[in-house]
């Protein structure tokens, strides 16, 4: 599994698409300039833009590589030669997943100093009213990384049952948007404003809420941008949710991948 | 070659589009929040920036006397949508206060936004400071103003704000209140368009204050109010005809209130004489 993860990671690092996506990092140079257009919150705007860019890069990479990694190997029949080796299908899948997760982690580690440098420059040109909580910013980016690793796990699950890249790619994109808005829908259907909704609709919405990953739980942008205190309980619960969610998705993916017929 | 030929007219066409097209349609904030996923703050910031750039362009036009009526309702819709996406966005509250209150006199709308912002930006003294000013100056609700100023004073640690409402309870103190308010904002304003707008308004209020002081001196000396500005000049209480930076003409009401035909708005200096507010 370790060898497959390492091979996967090396494959990504050789991939030109990954590096071309990283060209987005150049946009960080424009963050202090764009943020200086703000009237009252230059540093806050620089944080907003930097966190948005980091999140955008990770989203593109996780959807693209999470959705195509396993499918591409099956399509090119690399999988057949690998699974003929003395290694289980589960270990192969987990190796691919951890290789992808390691790649996202490496990219995040590269983006962190670039993003922080942009914020540092903006905050020194226009000092903020409230000091930047750098630890909160790092935790926020860390939770972004967790969110996209969870998304990769979803894309891998779709890859195990799909014969084309459509389901993994578009399934991951739809899951991302549904998972980002599920909390809002859940809050709405349990508010007084949704009294007119039928019990069946509420039941279906509640079921969907618990089934799809809740990505909004990982969003700590407001805490990072406006130096709001973090809830330790919330952080620990979300981290636990991440471990449980990824484990469940991978277990399901392994189960389906083991039963898949490969001709 | 064709690209170059098309670019200039296309650019001109886009610049000359009707206002509602330039500002664009903004979907319901709930929909925007749902589809913007984890980019809600960025979308909110982009909306505020769009309005600021739009207003900045119009402000330049207005200074150059090219009268283009700003689409204030559309601007309000965008700003109120932006704070639903990011209730902490100070640019949105600041811009709403700068434009809604002075230019369109939608004080209640601005106060609603400020009250909404105070629920989130609990550390920020600017929001109660703005609300205090709006209540004291425009709505003349001094009890409410005192509450907001007290809150602004506690958050900022400044005794000036704590004493503001008490000091300017009288009608005659309103000009001083406006000068303190505008001076505070001019010092910390970075946005060129907004700062220029504040500077011109501050200049106008300082002229009003000079006329009011001359009027009061005249009353002490003559036991009656002057009937015109010219009378103040003739009696040497004023050295010259006061100049309204908005291009208007100052006058005195029968009650001695200083009025201006511009009403502190560019391009309004006709026969429409109003008391500055």
Query: What is the count of helical runs of chain A?
Result: 11
Query: Tally of extended strands of chain A?
Result: 0
What's the overall geometry of chain B?
flat
Total number of distinct structural domains of chain A: 1
Helix/strand order of chain A, N-terminal first? HHHHHHHHHHH
Percentage beta strand of chain B? under 5%
Tell me the radius of gyration of chain A. 20 Å
Rg of chain B (CA only): 22 Å
Poorly predicted ranges of chain B (pLDDT <50, ≥5 residues)? 270-277
Q: How far is the first residue's CA from the last residue's CA of chain A?
A: 23 Å
Work out the number of β strands of chain B.
2
- What structural class do you assign from the helix and strand content of chain A? mainly alpha
Main beta sheet of chain B: strand number and arrangement?
2 strands, antiparallel
Helix percent of chain B reads: 55-70%
What topology, given as strand order, has the largest sheet of chain B? Answer: 1-2
Helical region count of chain B? 13
Task: Give a structural overview.
The complex is a heterodimer of chains A (263) and B (277). Chain A is mostly helical. Chain A has one domain. The mean pLDDT of chain A is 87. Chain A contains 11 helices and no strands. Chain A is globular and about 60 Å long. Chain B has a two-stranded antiparallel sheet. Chain B has 277 residues and is mainly alpha-helical. In chain B, helix 6 runs antiparallel to helix 7 and helix 7 runs antiparallel to helix 8. In chain B, a hairpin with a 5-residue loop joins strand 1 and strand 2. The C terminus of chain B is likely disordered. Among the domains of chain B are: 98 residues, no CATH class; 66 residues. Chain B has 13 helices and 2 strands, in the order H-H-H-H-H-H-H-H-H-H-H-H-H-E-E. Classes of the chains: A mainly alpha (263), B mainly alpha (277). At the A-B interface, helix 4, helix 8 and helix 10 of A face helix 3, helix 4 and helix 6 of B.
């Amino acid at each position: 599994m370790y060898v497959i993860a390492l091979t996967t990671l090396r494959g990504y690092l050789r991939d030109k698409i990954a590096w071309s996506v990283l060209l987005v990092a150049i946009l960080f140079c424009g963050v202090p300039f764009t943020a200086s257009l703000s009237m009252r919150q230059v540093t806050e705007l620089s944080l907003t833009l930097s966190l948005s860019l980091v999140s955008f890069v990770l989203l593109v990479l996780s959807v693209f590589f999470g959705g195509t990694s396993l499918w591409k190997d099956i399509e090119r029949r690399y999988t057949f030669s690998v699974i003929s080796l003395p290694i289980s299908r589960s270990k192969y899948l987990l190796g691919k997943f951890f290789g992808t997760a390691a790649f996202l982690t490496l990219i995040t580690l590269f983006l962190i100093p670039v993003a922080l440098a942009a914020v540092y420059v903006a905050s020194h040109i226009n000092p903020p009213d409230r000091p930047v909580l750098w630890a909160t910013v790092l935790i926020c980016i860390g939770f972004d990384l967790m969110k996209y690793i969870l998304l990769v796990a979803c894309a891998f699950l779709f890859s195990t049952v799909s014969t084309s890249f459509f389901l993994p790619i578009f399934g991951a994109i739809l899951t991302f948007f549904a998972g980002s808005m599920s909390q809002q829908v859940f809050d709405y259907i349990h508010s007084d404003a949704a009294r007119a909704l039928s019990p069946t609709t509420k039941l279906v919405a509640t079921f969907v809420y618990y089934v799809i990953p809740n990505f909004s739980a990982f969003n700590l942008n407001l805490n990072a941008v406006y130096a709001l205190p973090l809830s330790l309980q919330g952080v620990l619960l979300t981290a636990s949710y991440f471990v449980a969610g990824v484990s469940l998705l991978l277990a399901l993916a392994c189960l389906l991948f083991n039963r898949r017929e490969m001709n | 070659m064709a690209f170059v030929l098309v670019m200039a007219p296309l650019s001109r066409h886009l610049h000359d589009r009707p206002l509602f097209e330039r500002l664009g349609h903004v979907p319901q904030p709930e929909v925007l929040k749902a589809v913007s996923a984890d980019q809600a703050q960025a979308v909110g910031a982009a909306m505020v920036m769009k309005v600021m750039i739009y207003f900045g362009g119009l402000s330049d036009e207005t200074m150059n006397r090219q009268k283009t009526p700003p689409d204030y309702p559309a601007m309000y819709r965008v700003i109120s949508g932006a704070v639903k996406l990011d209730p902490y966005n100070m640019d949105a509250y600041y811009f709403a206060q700068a434009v809604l209150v002075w230019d369109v006199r939608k004080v209640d709308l601005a106060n609603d936004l400020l009250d909404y912002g105070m629920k989130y930006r609990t550390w920020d003294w600017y929001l109660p400071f703005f609300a205090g000013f709006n209540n004291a100056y425009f709505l003349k609700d001094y009890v409410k103003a005192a509450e907001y100023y007290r809150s602004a004073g506690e958050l900022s640690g400044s005794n000036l704000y704590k004493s503001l409402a008490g000091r300017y309870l009288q009608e005659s103190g309103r000009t001083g209140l406006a000068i303190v308010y505008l001076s505070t904002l001019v010092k910390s304003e970075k946005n060129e368009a907004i700062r220029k707008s504040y500077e011109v308004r501050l200049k106008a209020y300082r002229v009003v204050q000079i006329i009011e002081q001359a009027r009061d001196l005249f009353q002490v000396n003559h036991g009656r109010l002057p009937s015109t500005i010219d009378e103040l000049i003739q009696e040497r209480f004023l050295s010259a005809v006061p100049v309204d930076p908005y291009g208007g003409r100052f006058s005195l009401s029968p009650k001695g209130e200083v009025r201006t035909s511009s009403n502190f708005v560019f391009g309004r200096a006709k026969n429409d004489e109003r008391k500055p507010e």
